[in-house]
Hints:
This protein is an alpha/beta fold. It has a single domain, classed as L-arginine/glycine Amidinotransferase, Chain A (5-stranded Propeller), CATH 3.75.10.10. The protein has a 4-stranded mixed sheet, covered by helices on one side. The protein has a 4-stranded mixed sheet with strand order 4-3-2-17.
Amino acid sequence: MTDPSLRLPAEWEPQAAVLIAWPHADTDWAERLAAVETTYVALAAAVTRFQPLIVVVADGELQAHVETLLRNTKVDLARIRFVELPYDDTWLRDSGPITLKAGDASFQLTDFRFTGWGGKFGAEQDDALIAGLVDAGVFGHAAHKRIDWALEGGGIESDGAGTVLTTWRCLVQRHPEQSREEMSAILRDSLHAARVLWLDYGYLEGDDTDAHIDTLARFAPGERIVFQACDDISDPHHDELQRMGVELAALRTVDGRPYELYPLPWAKPILDKSGLDEGRRLAASYANYLIVNGAVLVPAYDDPADDEAARIIGTAHPGREIVQVQCRPLIWQNGSLHCITMQLPAGLA
């Protein structure tokens, strides 16, 4: 039985801030740090136009460096709060808090176990990040609930009204011993959801999250779903994403209606051009966008499809400014714009 006083808000609901962690030389970004910092600076500039930004930094030296970068690009530092904590990496969509909100404007920081995407990478510091932010007073008097079950924020989508969307490919990798029914029950209970919708198809080459939903399909206001499509029949993703599109068309709202679907264009293959993984395809998903107050920040990849993707996302999120953020540096580490951010509901911070 779910608690009706708590729910998982939709991303398009009012926000207090966006939370990020800044890359540094002791993270996996070290080899291309200068390049990825250009994306982080652009992200900070975009977010602070609309709302506050909380930046986790490893130490005071990094904070001073970040402040210099942002000051040089005329980012409003008055809208930025720095918090000094240790972290393994910067994918705060997955190590940050999944915040439930009650009708009385109280909050629960739901702190699932973070395993480095099924043990692929070291994650001890990232798993302790939420507790560190709580201890630093970032979230005021919000309740902090630890749940000893592996789940990443990028693995779930919420419509804010009790429906959660996720992928079987990801969660069966995290919990191979559990059935879909068992996992659905855990998700409903821990996220105070009424129902869980599953996708069996959909993946992106270069994605090491095992098909996080935020790279594939996103809820939008008005019972819409924006999703990454592929119309290139020669592309190895074509069959899988076509099947995912069929699955999405078969989903129904609580009232039994089909969702209004917004397929996104497909970027041309982007390959890693250096290092041991030269020739590796990178996961350029337009579905990995970030909603903020009054705007949607949309990934761009220097591809002819960038503008059309931005237009479609804008149509699905009417009344919001569309801001493109260059994300080609991010996909070298297998994620994009949404993956490095976590929104905080209004009133939380």
